[in-house]
Design goal:
- The structure is a homopentamer.
- With about 300 residues, chain A is an alpha+beta fold.
- Helix content of chain A is about 60%, strand content about 15%.
- A six-stranded mixed sheet of chain A has the order 1-2-6-5-4-3.
- In chain A, strand 1 and strand 2 form a beta hairpin.
- The longest helix of chain A is centred in the C-terminal third of the chain and has 63 residues.
- The mean pLDDT of chain A is about 90.
- Chains A and E meet through helix 7 of A and helix 6, helix 7 and helix 8 of E.
Chain lengths: ~300, ~300, ~300, ~300, ~300
Amino acid sequence: MSMRTVIENKVSWINIVDPSQEDIEHLRRYYPFHPLDLEDCLSSIERPKVDEYENYLFIVMHFPIYDPHARISRISEVDIFIGSGYLITLHNGELTPLLRLFEECHKDERARSKHMSRGAGQLLYGILDRTVDYVMRILTQVGSRINQVEEKIFTEDMRYIVEEISVIRRDVIALRRIIKPQIGVVSNLERKDRPFIREGMEVYFGDIVDGFSRAWDELEDHREVIENLSSTSDSITSYRINETMRTLTVISVLLLPLTLLAGIYGMNISLPFDKQPYAFYGLIGTMVVIVVGLVVLFRKRKWM
Amino acid sequence: MSMRTVIENKVSWINIVDPSQEDIEHLRRYYPFHPLDLEDCLSSIERPKVDEYENYLFIVMHFPIYDPHARISRISEVDIFIGSGYLITLHNGELTPLLRLFEECHKDERARSKHMSRGAGQLLYGILDRTVDYVMRILTQVGSRINQVEEKIFTEDMRYIVEEISVIRRDVIALRRIIKPQIGVVSNLERKDRPFIREGMEVYFGDIVDGFSRAWDELEDHREVIENLSSTSDSITSYRINETMRTLTVISVLLLPLTLLAGIYGMNISLPFDKQPYAFYGLIGTMVVIVVGLVVLFRKRKWM
Amino acid sequence: MSMRTVIENKVSWINIVDPSQEDIEHLRRYYPFHPLDLEDCLSSIERPKVDEYENYLFIVMHFPIYDPHARISRISEVDIFIGSGYLITLHNGELTPLLRLFEECHKDERARSKHMSRGAGQLLYGILDRTVDYVMRILTQVGSRINQVEEKIFTEDMRYIVEEISVIRRDVIALRRIIKPQIGVVSNLERKDRPFIREGMEVYFGDIVDGFSRAWDELEDHREVIENLSSTSDSITSYRINETMRTLTVISVLLLPLTLLAGIYGMNISLPFDKQPYAFYGLIGTMVVIVVGLVVLFRKRKWM
Amino acid sequence: MSMRTVIENKVSWINIVDPSQEDIEHLRRYYPFHPLDLEDCLSSIERPKVDEYENYLFIVMHFPIYDPHARISRISEVDIFIGSGYLITLHNGELTPLLRLFEECHKDERARSKHMSRGAGQLLYGILDRTVDYVMRILTQVGSRINQVEEKIFTEDMRYIVEEISVIRRDVIALRRIIKPQIGVVSNLERKDRPFIREGMEVYFGDIVDGFSRAWDELEDHREVIENLSSTSDSITSYRINETMRTLTVISVLLLPLTLLAGIYGMNISLPFDKQPYAFYGLIGTMVVIVVGLVVLFRKRKWM
Amino acid sequence: MSMRTVIENKVSWINIVDPSQEDIEHLRRYYPFHPLDLEDCLSSIERPKVDEYENYLFIVMHFPIYDPHARISRISEVDIFIGSGYLITLHNGELTPLLRLFEECHKDERARSKHMSRGAGQLLYGILDRTVDYVMRILTQVGSRINQVEEKIFTEDMRYIVEEISVIRRDVIALRRIIKPQIGVVSNLERKDRPFIREGMEVYFGDIVDGFSRAWDELEDHREVIENLSSTSDSITSYRINETMRTLTVISVLLLPLTLLAGIYGMNISLPFDKQPYAFYGLIGTMVVIVVGLVVLFRKRKWM
């Protein structure tokens, strides 16, 4: 679809959004890439990996993209070829931090110099650094949604809480699935020394590994906290069921005897005191005594 | 039962469906197979394995077959002998991707050339590649059933949700049990180099290992998502129990006092105002006041 | 209690049921066994183990015996001494497959030849092979009990389901505890080569290890399935509680207003229309209208 | 507080109950112990450990003491110095098996000879052997409490079951915490050979390791069984809630329509058949028909 | 913000609270620190780590600070540079044990001598020792809150219990997250020998590792106990729901038949015995008989 290039010093960054068959053809002609790697760039989601060749690396990485409609993070794939003097990124254009960095390098002399002057390895670091920040921002958003649930769990309607917990947990599962294999991929980059990733960059890639590890720790944290909230919300609902039951029971126990008494005095037979003018007040008084007695009993058993 | 052969170049593929005693006898006579291996071909389900001999391999693999009646995936076994110049598959004819590949090789010159021209190792890769695709399709179906539950969980009747979750979880357990040992079997094939699996095939078998690993990851994902759904459905049911209880309580609390009042004025004794012509309207008015008061109270406590 | 011997070729199998002090004394006199091992034979349940000595092995194995009264599998211990030219089994006579094999060897020339002609190692394999079959049969029985619960879970009374799940789960816990250490014991036998276990037997012991591993896998499967059933049965019970609550609520909501209306017209005061001859039919009509209205409302909210 | 000594052959066993500052001072003067170790003897609960020095070992072990008031097992610490020709135990006097062994050695010539004639290593073994027995007895008690819950779970009042499960589970958690590190400590003793623990004792310490491992296995077993009971008891309670709900619903559904009918015939208006002498029997008959009809319906739906 | 120094012998301890840009500038000028480390001191929360350089160590540690408002422990970071002759601590001033130790060294000659006379390694040990004590105190507080819940769980209102369990569990999750990586950091310090951490200090750092391990064990314990409490509280709530239900059912079953009987005798038709003067007593007697009968029935079924 769209292939654009930025050149600085001796490094060129080729960014291909939605790679078409011709783009791949172009790469095939001018670069020494293995046919299988080029095929992978066109096919859908692959597993994250680093394929190592003599004079280039083929890196497949995944990043989460939050889909607000499905309320879940989906996988967004970036394919990277890195060799001596070039770095090629292929993706579907969703990953804004990558696009933004490209724009900066494209427009701004200083950004270009900062990210590209020391070779392709430095540029790769720059890209990964941005994406780590991006991932951390997504996790922070998840964290603040969890905090909201935490604050409302003892007061809010449970329907909202239950749905929110379910949706966040679903998202955390998806994010874990996406983040986990990235650590392996970047550790791999850190460990091995290659000529076209300039020396002295390991420290920097160590930073990226650290970033993904922190992301992973935070996701673990999120997962445990959401489990706690889920368990708490279930306990609260059970508690409320008991409270509701208790209210119903208290009301029934208070009113049913009075209704029975009224029913008895409504029977069409000869009733004691039924001719007395103050029978009504006697009966009402009896009812009050019953109610007061029951209330005292409930208070004792801590039901009211 | 049925033994058919396709020959291409120097490789022959013998496909035996529902192997009979005679088929085994035939193999025993013409091939250097260990008696124990031949016995295994006749007996029921074995554990997946690769038995290595000097001049041939005996491979037992399992694949899932979805049984729509029991709504669960069952094991289907394929036994493979692979040696220099031949590949023999024994199974009960359920595994369609294998049958289809055999038909293709049988009928289509080009397919035969594509899958068999480079030796038995290539043919084995072809068979495994098809079965990986087949397994992924099964997992995609499970995934879409999970998605359906996910979409309906907040609206649908819980009976359907509970049954669906139980059945899918049962199937995921079965699939995990089937897929897991295959990774070991195929990794085993990838690692070791044998003369009759032509050199340069390791990369390809690496692909198959990758495929099964992806299948395993997806099953792990399915399992976590289904656990989340199960936990969510339980929370929703509890929530609904509370809501139903609350409705009953509200109705009872609203109507019981009125019934009591009516009961009191139904008593066969001298009642205050009972001779007044507007007593009825006074009592109805009192009832309305009680109801309105209770509704206001419920609104405050967020019960209505 | 009872010591019997079968001799074939140069191997003798001594089978001791309920070993008494004298039996042990006998072994002490004629065999080079360590006193601690002989003590172990008299004492109650030990941990499964293989104790290796220069010229004999002492093996303690456990097998499950299903106790139909307690509805749980108990441990049954077999102690085995194996040395050059002899194999001694000590147990309490519960383990039928072992007894049956002894009887076969005792009575049947061919069975004796088949199991004992190649030395004590072969006989040990024969015994273990039988017990593996026996263990698999027990697991199959557990599996069929699980299947029964699975089939009935959506229809049967929950009391039966809950009790059945609890009992099966208890039994699976017991079986896991019994089977697990056996794998280690038999792997141990497979690994090391000893003079009195004839060469070439490792493949066969590999078979036994495989058998116990399969048993373990099946138990893991059983455990996961029973967890699923337990979770499902809880969900179903919750669902049913809600359904029962809903029925009660629907009935109450339908009948309470009518009862109130009847109560109002039962009040001993001047009522509107009370002298009309068709007042009754008017009121019954009103009641019908109320019921129909409520039913329509319930239908809309999917409560009926 | 109290320091007593038993001497046999060349080994002396010094038993110090509730060590005071002077006791420690005494040890400091006459033994080559590290100051930190002596400090540890005065301070409260340490982690179990074996500190190895050139000519002595400092061992800290924990044993469970059941506290009947808190219904939980607490940690009881024993500090042991073992060197060439002496063994010193420091503890707070709670651990009866240790005290009893000391008394035996003190009073009984033969016990002294049996436990101390072969050196300090043998004495250490004797002490540990007793404490293993003691631990097993405690676990057996826990096991029998679990069995009681198991037997009563389907019949007894749930309040007792729930409390019992909670208390036993709490105790199992405490016991696991106490037992687990002991295995490491004793394995450590088994592995290394020291001059003052006479040669040939490893087999015996292997016995102790075995004992603690068995204790650990049994605790794992207890834990799983108690989880099963907890899950079962929750299922039973849910089941009972549904049964109680169902009883209430059946009663309400049976009686509410009759009450309504009676209410209707209690209205003070002209009623059909109200002047008939057999109206009463007609209405009662109608009521019976309603009840019988509802009962038949409930029977069909398996509610009664 | 505030930089203060204590000097003893040849060691100087520089304590910087809320490090400003100028403080960092100062360090940059006079010390050989890596720019990345200095940046870390200004930025927010890092992962705990030990960065090793030729002539200094950069240590980032985390400690929990209990936030009484949010009822959860937050991370408090301390950055430490340690080199030959100096130790520099940077933090935000929250960690009281560190501040207190600084004050002691500042004011008290003897404390200064005790903690700083043997070099920077000893001072580091002193600081870590204090913080371990501080962490243990926090865990003890959590433990006593758990004990309170444990004591009240069978008597107190569930709302309090549920909220308390949720809050404590949340705090335990946070504490686990904070404590866990510290063990790795301190183990790292223990293992490697550096010139500026004087020889013979490993034993002491072993003490610190031990302290953090004990903290971790206690947190594990807390976690298991809180899970037990959570499970118990859910069981109790379910039990209470059933009890409440049962009370309601018993009341309804007792009173509804009497109400029906009264309703029947309230019908405006000719009733049997309605003219008898003792009809009232007959009916009341019937009611008593019904109630007594039902009570006997309930007693039998253990509902009362």
